[in-house]
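Long-time lurker, finally posting.

We've been working with HPLN1 protein (Alaudala cheleensis) and I want a structural starting point before designing mutants. I don't trust myself to interpret raw outputs, so I'm hoping someone here can both generate the structure tokens and explain anything notable. Sequence follows.
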Amino acid sequence: GVVFPYSPRLGRYNLNFHEAQRACAEQDSVMASFDQLYDAWRSGLDWCNAGWLSDGSVQYPITKPREPCGGRNTVPGVRNYGFWDKDKSHYDVFCFTSNFNGRFYYLIHPTKLTYDEAVQACLKDGSQIAKVGQMFAAWKLLGYDRCDAGWLADGSVRYPISRPRKRCSPSEAAVRFVGFPDKKHKLYGVYCFRGYN
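Top reply, 14 upvotes:
Generated this for you. Predicted structure of HPLN1 protein:
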């Protein structure tokens, strides 16, 4: 499976524990456990924003220590903020997905699309607009690689790169995050997902 950090359109540190649980479910995944985050860190996950884990703790993985992430002179590791109030405290979340039962693909379309057009284009193709978890699963588990920014169901725009190259993701294999653009802009393609029954 694959662990991925998630924050909503509102920006970072906007989810209490229960909202974080829901956010992962909406992205076709579950909240990651500490063991899953630790394995992801050992595989190179480096993320400087603290996120909820399934046990109610708040942690983040650092492979390259630097000033804003606990300090330059600290050792790499999973940084632990401890346990926080599940209703009042707000962080990002680490989600986990291993579930991949369908076809994830970039829809070849003659024009760039608004968000609503992207949703309709996938439906017309017999699919649904893909979720963030589905993109991470396709990238990590299937080596999916596409240098085209596309809409996803949560309104974000991302693209998966498993073979780093100059204009796409020069230094590392990654799911690149473009942002949460205005949904009315016709600037992007779309990633679709068709589940196998």
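Before you design anything, note these points.
The chain is about 20% helix and 30% strand.
The two ends are 21 Å apart (CA to CA).
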